[in-house]
Amino acid sequence: MALHFAFWKKQKMGKLIGDYVSDRVKEKRAFQEQLKRIYAQLQDKTIDQQLYDRLRDILEVKFIQQREDALTNIQNNLEESSGVETHKMFTLKELSEKIEMLEDEKTQVLEDVKALRKEAEEKAIWLECEVVVLREEAESLRKMLKTF
Length: 148
Description:
The chain has 3 helices and no strands. It has one domain (2-147). The longest helix has 64 residues, at 84-147. It is 93% helix and 0% strand.
């Protein structure tokens, strides 16, 4: 019986570590894709450098937090010798709370992006008007100089 329990425990550890590695690879790919997306938005000038930096920092913090949470989860699972089912339920609850928190954060970031776009559009319109006024002033100055 003790040998069977030890074998089961090794299997459990191997599965936890394997799952951790595959999850980390998926999270790393998702992180890189998100970085590429916001970099493309920066290049397309749909977002400015400041927003890009903020979004990149948020993604990095989220990525680090996911890694730390996954490591803590593995450590907790390895330290427990019983109560596997209750821990799985706790993990699902914890994950759903994190997903909800991240969705709220995503909504906030999207609202920030919309506000920044609106502000940028207003500034662009203001600058276009300013350019028109400056051109008119330059033209009138040219006419004045020609008359002198």
